[in-house]
Amino acid sequence: MNKVMLIGHVGKDPEVHYYDADQCVASFPLATTERGYTLANGTKVPDHTDWHNIVLFKSLAKYAEKYIHKGDKLYVEGRVRYRSYDDKKGARRQATEIYADSLEWLAAPKKAESSNVESGETLSTMDEMENSKLPF
Predict the structure, then answer these.
(1) How many CB atoms lie within 10 A of CB 65?
(2) Which of 43, 53, 59, 71 lies 20 to 30 A from 17 at CA?
(3) The 3-state secondary structure of 67-104, one letter per residue
(4) pTM of the model
(5) How far apart are CA 121 and CA 35, in angstroms?
């Protein structure tokens, strides 16, 4: 079984690329943080943050283009994929990506609560939007 479940914050606005007429793919980094703690002997273990490369396809990618922004808190379910490629200098590189099958929008940064500047649409209140399951 290949199943990944993450809750984290979007690191930057999604990059969306269109191909074959109306099909698209979106990608963005997602940060997940394990909170630090203090051991019984007083030693402090700091927070640890990992960055994950999230990839969305089709309707999820279109949703990301329109609604997901840097700082949004998301729940993402998907699967791990590994790929390799040659960089501009010809060196072989490895990439680990999470191909998302579904996502749940948990919260947006405070500035995004009132309006969506690009489309001019008024967003729902945070109470209405928080924990709303996407229809994909």
Answers:
(1) 17
(2) 71
(3) HCCCCCEEEEEEEEEEEEEECCCCCEEEEEEEEEEEEE
(4) 0.75
(5) 36
Q: How does pLDDT run across 3-60, given as a tens digit for each residue? A: 999 999 999 999 999 988 789 999 999 999 999 999 999 999 999 999 999 999 999 9
**Residues composing the chain:** 136
Rounded distance between C-alpha atoms, residue 21 and residue 2, angstroms: 31
CB 76 within 8 A of CB 10: no
